[in-house]
Design brief:
This protein is 80% helix and 0% strand. By secondary structure, the protein is an all-alpha fold. Helix 3 runs parallel beside helix 5.
């Protein structure tokens, strides 16, 4: 049946994009090449294109190109919102919040984290609370930051929860008296 061929090809692109997205930190040069190639084969707005922009945004952020990162994250957010893909949307919003923080746009970063929390699945919540704790620390709200690092630590089996256990306990005490 040829009517299922396009959806099968799109599903294969999504699977490929997911695998490459997992390589962003371990093999950034290879991930970048593969994401750019895959992006060229995607239909704008399809899930694979959204994942490509998310990965390219993460790579740009890690390279210190915050403007490029925000451009990719904006495209990923637009695509995820247009398709109603809330699980991907939540992850992209948390990533974009990190770049917004780096750009000094702290209010927007907190708004993205609030928006992400409405859609976040349990495995993302630890990372989300940890990121909110960092933004609040930069804002000088150490007591509130401490709360989020503690909430982060309540999720020990998530990557964010591990961060909360190490970073949160290390930062919670010094920041608890600051407000």
């Amino acid at each position: 049946d040829t009517s299922t061929a396009p959806s099968r090809v799109a599903a294969l692109r999504v699977e490929r994009a997911r695998r490459v997205l997992e390589m962003v930190h371990s093999r950034p040069a290879s991930a970048r090449r593969q994401l750019l190639t895959l992006q060229g084969r995607c239909v704008p707005g399809e899930r694979a294109a959204v994942l490509c922009h998310w990965g390219l945004g993460r790579l740009a952020h890690d390279a210190g190109d915050i403007d490029a990162a925000l451009g990719h994250f904006d495209l990923a957010v637009d695509g995820a919102e247009a398709s109603g893909d809330t699980s991907v949307l939540a992850g992209v919003l948390v990533s974009r919040a990190l770049s917004l923080q780096a750009a000094g746009q702290l209010a927007r970063a907190l708004q993205d984290l609030d928006d992400a929390e409405r859609h976040a699945e349990p495995d993302l919540r630890g990372r989300l609370h940890g990121q909110r704790g960092f933004v609040l620390t930069v804002l000088g709200a150490g007591g509130l930051a401490s709360l989020h690092f503690s909430m982060n630590g309540d999720l020990p089996f998530t990557s964010g929860g591990v961060l909360g256990n190490f970073v949160g306990h290390g930062l919670a005490a010094p920041f608890s008296f600051t407000g």
